[in-house]
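Tokens in:
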């Protein structure tokens, strides 16, 4: 079963409180396990649509997040996430910031044409929801807003370099600047994004791998503020 459109909350742009905040939204989904080559069925998300991006990393000062998400069994929003209940019901998913970057300004805005995909996983739920490159071990560690993130890297089926910062512990409420996770990359490796690479695509959501039952991903609070 895919995402039921009736379970998706939509708002007109006029209801956005500010240019950096989004209204609450939620989605209910249920999928069988996918193939090894394409394990993710969907990525329900809110994407930043702003004149602040594309932006070169050398001009990027802050990416301030202020968000709260929950995951629960069934079709209703829940107040808090019970990880054990999700695991007991074989839920495989994550909660993540998804970004795409490229040295070409236009390509950086495309999730399929960009050279780099950089993700920040705030939660990993289940044993099958794994970042690309996990088997090779973490290549770096960074602490942001008192949360520890480990970096994994590899290539996806589109031959994009995927760099995934994974939180050591699930972080349901996050308020802080994640720009250091991008600027760290430009100082690490010549095959990673550089200071002249453009960040052209930024979204927040959840990769739906699989679940035996209906699960509801809810985002009661979301603000993303890109500062140059």
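Residues out:
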């Amino acid at each position: 079963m895919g995402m039921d459109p009736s379970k998706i909350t939509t708002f007109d742009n006029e209801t956005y409180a500010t240019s950096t905040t989004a209204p609450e939204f939620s989605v209910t989904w249920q999928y069988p396990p996918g193939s090894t080559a394409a394990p993710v069925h969907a990525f329900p998300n809110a994407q930043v649509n702003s004149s602040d991006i594309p932006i070169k990393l050398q001009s990027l000062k802050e990416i301030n997040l202020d968000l709260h998400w929950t995951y629960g069994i069934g079709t209703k929003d829940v107040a808090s996430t019970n990880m054990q209940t999700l695991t007991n019901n074989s839920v495989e998913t994550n909660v993540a910031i998804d970004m795409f970057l490229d040295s070409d300004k236009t390509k950086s805005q495309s999730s399929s044409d960009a050279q780099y995909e950089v993700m920040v996983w705030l939660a990993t739920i289940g044993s099958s929801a794994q970042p690309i490159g996990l088997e090779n071990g973490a290549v770096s560690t960074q602490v942001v807003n008192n949360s520890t993130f480990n970096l994994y890297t590899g290539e996806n089926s589109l031959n994009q370099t995927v760099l995934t910062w994974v939180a050591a512990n699930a972080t349901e409420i996050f308020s802080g600047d994640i720009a250091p996770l991008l600027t760290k990359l430009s100082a690490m490796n010549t095959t990673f994004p550089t200071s002249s690479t453009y960040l052209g695509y930024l979204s927040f959501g959840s990769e739906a791998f699989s679940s035996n039952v209906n699960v509801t991903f809810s985002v009661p609070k979301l603000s993303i503020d890109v500062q140059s």
